Amino acid sequence: VIDLEGDIDRDVPTVPNNLVYVYFPFDDDQLPDLVKLHALGKLAAEMIRHGRAVLIHCSMGFNRSPLMAGVTFTHLGLTGAQALER
What we know:
The protein is mainly alpha-helical. Helices cover 40% and strands 7% of the residues. A three-stranded parallel β-sheet has the order 2-1-3, with helices on one face. It is globular.
């Protein structure tokens, strides 16, 4: 789970070695730290390559989560245009 909204999710499972939960909120009106953004994109891409499910979410799904998904897609080998189309 990559959580991009302002509050930590309620009832996050605490079973050992079961869930990777990353809390990385940022404001919609400015770009986040790009080093961190791309590091998370690489992590998500690697999880997907190994058949793991990845959930990226924010509050509304208009800005932050699509940005994170697009970065993830580019780390999976898509061009920026292909990531945007997808």
